[in-house]
Specification:
The protein is mainly β and about 120 residues long. The protein has one helix spanning about 10, and strands at about 20-25, 30-40, 50-55, 60-65, 70, 75-80, 85-100, 115. Strands 1, 2, 3, 4, 5, 6, 7 and 8 form an eight-stranded mixed sheet that branches. Strand 4 and strand 5 (about 70) form a beta hairpin.
């Protein structure tokens, strides 16, 4: 990782694929990632960790079994561990995610997207 400032917009400009998190730094044994989202992600939960979402650009809807949470740029939401959720982006959304190192983004290593550093 780097000791320089990290420009998230520049990092996001280096890829086009959706739902493929890119590690930009690490913080206390956590991966700090950017991701582009569009469409519906799958329903999932994390048994051992909360799920952190910060919207940088666009509008993200996080569907929970009992309600929806709508996030605008500059807003964040933390899904508590064990809670089923599905992120949905009608248009492309840019997100900052923070997860403990090695945690699969779906809560299940078999269905998770591979994390890459950029």
């Amino acid at each position: 990782m780097t000791n320089d400032a990290i420009n998230l917009e520049q990092k996001l400009s280096t890829f086009k694929e959706h739902w493929s998190p890119k590690i930009v730094s690490q913080f206390n044994e956590c991966d700090v990632m950017v991701v582009k989202a569009k469409g519906e992600f799958n329903w999932h939960h994390h048994d051992e960790t909360d799920d952190f979402f910060l919207v940088l650009k666009g509008t993200l809807r996080i569907e929970l079994r009992d309600r929806d949470v709508v996030l605008q740029p500059g807003e964040l939401f933390i899904v508590p561990k064990g809670v089923d959720h599905r992120p949905v982006a009608e248009e492309e959304v840019h997100l900052l995610l923070i997860e403990p190192k090695g945690v699969p983004n779906t809560g299940d290593a078999e269905t998770a997207a591979a994390k890459m550093s950029i």
